[in-house]
Specification:
By secondary structure, this protein is an all-alpha fold. It folds into 2 domains: 166 residues, no CATH class; 132 residues, no CATH class. Helix content is 61%, strand content 0%. It contains 13 helices and no strands. The longest helix is centred in the first third of the chain and has 50 residues. It is globular.
Length: 361
Amino acid sequence: MKVNPHIKPKNNSTSIVMLDVIIALLPLVVAAYVAYGQQALLLIATAIVSAILADFLFSALYARKFTTVLDGSAVITALLLSFTLSPVTPCYVVAFGGFSAVIFGKMLWGGLGKNRFNPALVGREFMAAFFPVMASSAIWDTKRLINIESKNIFGGLQDSYLSGYLSDLIYKPTGAMGEYSIALIALGGLYLILRKRISWHIPFTLLVVFSIGFWLVDDGDDLKYSIAGVLLGSLFMATDMPSSPNSPYGKMYYGGMIGLVSFIFIAAGVRFEYMSFSILILNGFSSQINDVFRPRVWGREEDTKIKVEKIFLLTLTVLVITMAVLSLHYYQLIRYLVYIYIIYIIFKFNFSFIKNISNPI
């Protein structure tokens, strides 16, 4: 008797899952177009074309596969990458970022589902490492280029502060290209949760810990950060399935630590890369978090003291790495960390990952 134990629902194929993420991100593309018109679309298109081209060429050369780009992962990587950028970022820099995100963030790890770090954020850090323009504050001076200014949509309300606040939630064209509408970001995240593409654990604990940090410090209101950027990172980047833990408690710890680390970076004066740094740092600890928060095997007792000790040591290690990255950022040495990463990933690919390049999960 032949019995197949593997049942794959047709609505949960890789392409369908990726399509849902693209649907959730499309409203942000519309918001970027409303804010900066064709300039925004040009940068988004540049990122998508470079990412697809990198995916196609690498898959064709190493795996002899020519249809992997159809799964949609390269498009998602490109969209998320472009949403972290200023609308005046040079096109050649964006193309480099899209190419690097796919090659060094996904393909050299073995392909789809095997990446240790979020590919879009890897591409973002490559751009910062190789192009000094990314570190210039002038790249964020975009007010003169705004296509449609923010408007007081709720002007009929008597409370002017409340009406302005609510209007900014709908549309406020400042910051990176994915940060122009908090409402649309939240709507996209809610769509993914309802479609069960992501769970609530990571974004909820991330935002709670992040908010508590600002509530506890005296000068929390004076610290500079983007609410939209934090929300975008918590819903669409921290929840990247291959680079995040898979158990509920592991996800909650992971999200909470991203919230804590990002708050530390902001409090220390990191202006534009606090979410990128914090998510990438916790990406690196994802497998350890899975081990510590592994569900208890039925019939076996769990030693609570040992588990608490493991959590403490893991948290201490994360904080030490955070301080190390903060020091590198302060002395403008992050680019050397990127160089080390390039050497490491190429070495690992040639001696290990290349064996699994044809077997995506």
